[in-house]
Write the C-alpha cells for this entry.
Amino acid sequence: MRPGDSMPLAGSAKWQALNGNDPRKLAAVLHAALAHLDESTPHAISTRFAHEVAAQHRQEQALLKETAVAVSAAMSSTGALNQHLPFCTLAARRTTYATEALTAEEIRRRAARSWGLTDHPSTRKRAA
C-alpha cells in the first residue's frame, strides 16, 4: 500500500479526518517515518552528494567547452591561428633538422651566457 492510494498522506486533510483507531492513520505515519529514515542513511546522503558534485562538474565542463569554443572562434576570426604550426608539423621538422649533441662544457658555457653569469671582478670570490 502506498500513500495516496487507499492510505492518505500523513498530515493531509483526509488523514486528519480518519478515526484515531484506523490502521491507515498509523500506517501513513510509519510510512513517512521510514521514508525519513531511509533518506537519512549515510548511503543516501553520499548518493545525493555524489549527484550534486556530478551536476556541478557537468556545469563546469559545459562552461569550459563554451569558453574554449568562444576563444577559438575569436582567434580564428582575427587570424591568430594562422601564425602557429600544428604539432605534427613541428614534430616532423624537429626530426628532419637534427642538431649535434652538445658536450657538457658547451651546455655550461651556453647556460652561463644565457643567465648572464660572465666572469666579472665584482662577482669574483677573493682567495682566502
User: Anything to note?
Assistant: The radius of gyration is 37 Å.
